[in-house]
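USER: Write out one fold?

ASSISTANT:
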Amino acid sequence: METRRPGGTATTPLLRGVAGGRAAIVSARRRSIGHSHRTQPAFVPTKLERKIVNGIAPPAMGVAASPSFERALQPACFASRADLRGLLPLEVRLRTVHAEGLARLLPLLLCGEESAALAFAQFAELARLDGDARAQLRRMRFEEERHEVWLTRLRLGLPAPWPDTGLRRTVRHFFLAIREPELGAHLGRIAALDSAVCVILGALRNPRCALAADVDLRQLVTRIQFEEAGHARTASFYARVFGVRDLRRLAIDTRERLVRLLALRAGAFDQVGVCPDSLSRRLLQVSRRLFA
């Protein structure tokens, strides 16, 4: 069966047995006369990409150290490899009520970024994946960590919400509960989650949402949404390469669990001008194109 990599290259996935009964993914690309086989180089972040973490809308004034400021620099749920030292807060141009609503939503988004960064870092080290796959997973890990840095800077620029340890435990349990022992199934759930994040971010950058009042913030949300869409496509591709059965059922189960989690912050979505009921209905509509 011919499949297409997220970048558009036609491939024929093959499974090869290795020691311990595991399978190795080998990509046998279709070749034609006069076309040489090219191997995608390993992903290495450029200097510009490394510097960009502190290059988005720096604040006009410094922020004095405070307990809430220090708390915002701590991981929301999981300690990933993202470097959060010396971050500057983003300058946010929102009304107070809208900024407070966004501050209540951010821990949910940050936990997702942390969890994804850890998962992609683990997947990128698997020997049974080919070099092209590991390079793509390393890029996804880098982008998830970059999202984590950006959202942490946004968190620093927002009012500090009341600490909610109960919510943190619930969110951690959600991400731990959807982990799958089989790599392909886990990637299928990640595809469902990352595509759901695109729906959520799309609602937040909608002109009717309060975040539209801050042009820079809307551009940041758009950038993250664009990269998350790429992650969903890549995770979907490799889930299909592994031959996982009934990926749609996995996706529906993942989305249903996510909707129940987001219901805990329905009031915060209302605060920023996103109808939680409408958002839930959209999230429960899993497109058949997700695994096509």
In short: The chain is about 55% helix and 5% strand.
